[in-house]
Amino acid sequence: MPGDQPQYVIAPPPAVALPVAGSDALFPVRRVYCIGRNYAAHAVEMGHDPDREDPFFFQKNPDNLTTDGRFPYPPMTRDVHHEAELAVMLKSGGRDIAVAEALEHVFGYALALDMTRRDLQAAQKALGRPWEIGKAFEGSAPVGPIHPARAIGHPDRGRITLRVNGALRQDGDLNQMIWKVPEMIAHLSRYYALAAGDVILSGTPAGVGPVVPGDVMEIAVEGLGAMTVTVV
């Protein structure tokens, strides 16, 4: 009957879903959390103390995630930077998750880029305002296929690199994370009710820098392969 189906005043937006390596099934995205300054060398290059302070997070929007291998250069900026990251996808969640149990909630991992309008972010930092205008814009998080943890395990070490037009820009190791994946999940769950479909971007090593239209970025993580994204 007509009354059995919800009626909307406008058409609902399309669901955001990501491909899974080796499967036709898709991973639905609920929320996107990003940890800031999670590699000591990157904290230093951004002018901050690399000591192990409490982690902090900002958010991107689910529809900021893209999978078409293209990064549209955004408006209102002259300084867009690349940040190579490991993305963590959750299959379940909850509150006050123990560090020892955190990896039980992980579905898999993927390559990701946290693209940043650095000039706009810097202006917001100077004013003590949120970063979203520099971080959560359209197309700001290219991601690769998700590799299920059941197939690759839980990578806690391995080289992570980013090249622009073949030149090495970022070169680090996952074991350089200040806050490891289980700790990130546990900390977030103290403040949010985590759930299936949540995505966590785990921070970037040193070497972030600008890109311009026509540049080709290649991110690689040991055990997860590589992803190429063209700035258009």
From TrEMBL:
Keywords: Hydrolase, Metal-binding, Pyruvate. The keyword Metal-binding applies. SUPFAM superfamilies: FAH. This is Fumarylpyruvate hydrolase. The keyword Endoplasmic reticulum does not apply. One of its GO terms (molecular function) is metal ion binding. Pfam families: FAA_hydrolase. InterPro entries: Fumarylacetoacetase-like_C (IPR011234), Fumarylacetoacetase_C_sf (IPR036663). Residues 32-232 form the Fumarylacetoacetase-like C-terminal domain. Gene3D superfamilies: Fumarylacetoacetase-like, C-terminal domain (3.90.850.10).
